[in-house]
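Field guide to reading this record: the first block holds the primary sequence, the second block holds the structure written as discrete tokens, and the final block holds curator observations. Each block starts with its own label. This record concerns O-antigen ligase like membrane protein, catalogued under organism Oceanicella actignis.

BLOCK 1 — SEQUENCE
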Amino acid sequence: MPNALAYLALFAWPVVALAMFRRMAPRRALIWTLLAGYLLLPERTGVDLPLLPALDKTFIPAAAALALCWPHLRARGGLGVLRGPMGALAAIYLAGPFATALSNPDPVITGVRFMPGLNLYDAASSALTNAVLLMPYLLARRMLADEDAHRDLLTALAAAGLAYTLPALFEIRMSPQLHSWIYGFFPHAFDQQMRYGGFRPVVFLPHGLWLAMFMAMAVIAAAALWRLAPQGRRAARAAATAWLLGVLVLCKTLSATFYALAFAPLVRFAPLRWQVLAAALGGGAVLLYPMLRGADLAPTQTALELAAAVDEERAQSLGFRLGNEDVLLARANLRPFLGWGGYGRSHEYDPATGRDLTIADGRWIIVIGAFGWLGYLAEFGLLTLPLILAARRRAPVAPATAALGLILAANLVDLIPNASLTPLTWMIAGALAGRLEAERARRPT
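BLOCK 2 — STRUCTURE
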């Protein structure tokens, strides 16, 4: 159970955000309100109110940022939620839960397990949850839509990553203890953080996988800043990139290390056009993945063989995930367009005992099972469309913008095996979407 300090940190965060907005430019304060809130506030701590989303580390930083950004947003015409193709997807993302609820009024009964049918209360609750998830996207779309803001975002990711290496190294040596010592409990299964005779660090994030993914993002950001640095500072930026990569390797997460090794050299050495195309290829592959998976065209056997070549235990883990995906995808295909809704209705259960037979790990299968293709295309369209549309443009792209595209692509690829969708993912996607929309607005008609 969370201790008093956990709740104090959570509900004091608006005061921290106010202090940042008084001392920083609005765009930098927005970045740090969301980034530091994600990295420092306690997991699985909040207050559940009727209908409303939980008041937790996702809601409170986003709400504080919205309130403190509002004077600047009002001068720019508000959030502009419904503008352009991104606005259409945002509208579907917010309204989709109502369509899902209306199509799922029937209860699901399997053995002794009873899952109720959905009603408008469930729809409103899901729509409000989606609104909270979308808030960093909408704020970044309006406040972080220029090259200077993109460079600020890269700098914040690298700086936060460097700062986070200290508690991460402590937990690598001493085991994941900081969340328990400071906030009174551990947010996940401890045994899942034990790997290769040591420990994966967690610090204040949901799981060691999430921390490793953040460190991979920091490595790519540092590599981008290394490229952008003047001649006299390149050695320091190179050392920072190497340090972050070394700590990432010690985090003992193969997938995140692979993303960093694949994308950091691109962002440091490749032409900007290649970076944009690589990011679009990654985003497009993620968007199409459920179709490829359903048609048995995804290279799952190759992935298993590569994993087995590295570590037989990782191959077994991947095989278990893929088997669960097959079962969950077959279940999702029974209600493909609007999904099954919440309460675990999209899972498969033992017909005699009602025991849950499946585990949903990847964000894609969670969304497509709960909200169908409509919900999937809305959510993943918002996240991938900025990358795909950027590749269609022939105009030069700023180095910081190209780097953010690769960071987003790495995070999106990780949404296939994991549910590592965070406020940082939404913020980066929103910043890229805003840049595209701003350039389109300046284009002569």
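BLOCK 3 — OBSERVATIONS
The chain has a mean pLDDT of 93.
The longest strand covers residues 108-110.
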